[in-house]
Design goal:
The chain is α+β, with helices and mostly antiparallel strands and 635 residues long. The protein is 43% helix and 14% strand. Helix 7 crosses helix 12 and helix 15 packs across helix 20. The longest helix is centred in the first third of the chain and has 23 residues. The chain is globular and about 75 Å long.
């Protein structure tokens, strides 16, 4: 039953940190054979710091103020005081954590990967893997689909060349160089299910794969994309190879083997072991796992109105629409899967453990620009090897596993509700004209929308990049603050003047901006508290009361899990809620509009994606209307 899955999710979340934002590999996070220039850059980066204990405890109490009752807060103050007292358990754990930091490249990296991803047992589909919806393409047939796919493949190989040749520009944040490790993890990598914990392997440093996987009509093909001299195939050559694949996969009576990857991780691990007992199956699976990336050539789906188009196509990107549509046309453990529909729809779904959103979006920006400028040029008639169809022998056990996966997936697909929309009234340019942070402004509109629906604030997660540090991943920007609570309470108070409300808005924006700066400098509270908790487990001491407290459970139950994933391309990222009674909200602020994706679970009577969408749009308009228009404003 799906309800029981949700219950298991709720129990697990008591221990599990939130991964989604717009996550280092256990073995190997750092490649075994590293490029020289890359290695020199990485070594120059500072190590992730361990924040001072008292600083984190003080900030933890401040974070609790807007989301717990006064009675709970007073009780928690006593628990926190005892935890942080001189010579107490908190100081002992802090000392152990600081020793770990001195001995490792990044004290958090392996812990975060393990707890946030590899030990997470719910399906990666919806619950972990984000999807990206790209702008609709101007084609409506198979030839257009394959031409665009050929350009996209060529564009990804062009980006891969920058990684391989170490010509990828080093990114900076506020003048500080960023860790580039995630770029070296997203190609030629794949997750593998295990009975208690999964693993992620990157093959680029050992096997140096030269093929991609193409899947059409649930059938997988190995397509070599380099010539014998190491040069990549031309767009025209790739197109011809895709034509061969398309004609070789017209039969649709094949078992959708890829749907097995949608299952609960323990179930999929059992099915995986059954599957690879057969030598043919094992070789086919290894071929998918070692491939540079996967291209999913999707069958057309029912047409919908323009109003529903973004939401329906995003569903295809996130989960494939269920067993009747394209969910079997995937291998969800593969890090990068580019999805290209016959109707012009296109996007990507990525397995989250090797990377956060920004490196993925940088790749997509490059590829999308490449596709716009690329032209089909006739190549010399060099005979190319026929792409190899990957064979699978379906035993009765595997057939049974596929049927179970179909049933469970269809329940998940039915349960998740996604609303994607473009907010056309204004974008980041107007917000900047008020000398306000667009990200903080949007986060406050979310706080206002939630407050208007539920009459209270909730624990809110926004991801902050830790890439200023070696092997850095993310920490949490806590958007529900004392200042945001004061603003949302005042917003609909008719007795207050606009000037007073604007002052509270600016104060709340400043608080959010300050916390963001705190987080990117490695001084936020969430990962530090996680580290102290995991250190307590490793040291085999009793779990301290601070982590068993009701306030701690509330603080880490993120009813709003959000992420800003800006991109040059007019695209949108989406992920599912991280708690059963929560929302997933992702946004891409463009110059003159904002793209939003909101998700919720239908099984929860208290949440509704359309309702939050309505209140979010109204909050943005109301906040705009109380601020003055300036000469530089662009409406």
């Amino acid at each position: 039953m799906f309800v029981s899955t949700m219950d298991r999710r709720k129990d697990f979340l008591k221990l599990r940190p939130t991964p989604l934002s717009p996550g280092c590999l256990v073995r190997p996070i750092a490649p075994t054979r590293l490029p020289g220039r890359y290695l020199a850059h990485q070594k120059s980066l500072p190590r992730l710091p361990v924040p001072p204990l008292q600083q984190t405890l003080e900030r933890y109490l401040l974070a609790l103020e807007p989301i717990v009752s006064q009675e709970e807060l007073e009780s928690t103050r006593l628990i926190v005081k005892e935890f942080g007292q001189r010579g107490g358990v908190g100081e002992r754990l802090q000392a152990s954590l600081e020793r770990r930091a001195r001995k490792t490249e990044n004290w958090l990296c392996d812990w975060w990967l393990r707890t946030a991803y590899l030990e997470y047992r719910l399906p990666v589909v919806i619950h972990s893997s984000p999807a990206v919806l790209l702008p609709k393409q101007d084609y409506y047939d198979r030839q257009g689909q394959l031409r665009f796919a050929a350009k996209l493949i060529s564009g990804v190989l062009d980006f891969k060349a920058m990684i391989d040749n170490e010509t990828l520009p080093v990114e900076n944040l506020r003048g500080n160089p960023l860790c580039m490790n995630q770029y070296y993890q997203i190609l030629s990598s794949c997750r593998t299910p295990g009975p208690k914990t999964d693993s992620v392997v990157n093959y680029s440093q050992t096997k140096n794969p030269t093929h991609i996987t193409v899947v059409h009509n649930f059938q997988f093909f190995e397509l070599f994309v380099y010539n014998s001299d190491g040069s990549p195939l031309t767009v025209d050559q790739i197109y011809m190879q895709l034509e061969k694949i398309w004609h070789s996969s017209l039969q649709t009576n094949k078992e959708p083997i890829g749907i097995l990857t949608t299952g609960h991780r323990n179930s999929w691990a059992n099915a995986y072991n059954n599957l690879i007992k057969d030598k043919v199956n094992k070789e086919s699976v290894k071929c998918i796992q070692r491939s540079i990336f996967t291209i999913c050539l999707d069958a057309p789906v029912p047409k919908v109105s323009d109003e529903l188009y973004m939401s329906r196509v995003m569903e295809q990107m996130l989960h494939g629409g269920g067993s009747r549509w394209n969910s079997g046309n995937r291998w969800f453990d593969k890090t990068l899967q580019f999805i290209i529909g016959e109707d012009g729809s296109c996007g990507l779904v990525y397995e989250h453990s090797p990377s956060e959103g920004p490196p993925i979006m940088a790749l997509l920006d490059h590829v999308f620009e490449y596709c716009k400028n690329s032209v089909m040029v006739r190549s010399p008639m060099i005979p190319l090897t026929m792409p190899r169809k990957l064979r699978f022998n379906i035993t009765p056990d595997t057939k049974r596993d596929i049927e179970k996966a179909k049933q469970n997936l269809n329940m998940m697909v039915h349960d998740v509700d996604i609303k994607c929309f473009t907010f056309p009234q204004f974008g980041k340019d107007l917000v900047k004209s008020w000398k306000l942070s667009p990200d903080a402004f949007i986060q406050l509109s979310l706080q206002l929308a939630y407050y208007r629906i539920y009459g209270e604030s909730c624990a809110t997660y926004e991801s902050a990049s830790l890439r200023m540090f070696h092997l850095g991943r993310t920490d949490t920007i806590r958007s529900a603050t004392i200042e945001s609570s004061a603003f949302v309470c005042a917003m609909d108070n008719q007795q207050l003047q606009n000037q007073e409300k604007v002052a509270l808005l600016r104060k709340a924006v400043a608080a959010h901006t300050s916390y963001t700066d705190t987080a990117v400098r490695g001084q936020a509270i969430d990962r530090h508290l996680l580290g102290l908790k995991l250190q307590a487990i490793e040291d085999l001491v009793r779990i301290p009361e601070i982590f068993m407290d009701t306030s701690y459970a509330v603080a880490f139950h993120f009813n709003l899990s959000t992420s800003q994933v800006p991109a040059k391309t007019d695209c949108l990222l989406c992920f599912g809620p991280v708690v059963p009674d929560g929302y997933g909200v992702c946004y891409n602020p463009m110059d003159a509009h904002i793209n939003f994706a909101v998700s919720a679970f239908n099984s929860c009577a208290e949440t509704n994606a359309a309702k939050l969408t309505h209140y979010l749009e109204q909050a943005l308009i109301d906040m705009r209307d109380m601020l003055p228009l300036t000469p530089s404003s662009k409406l």
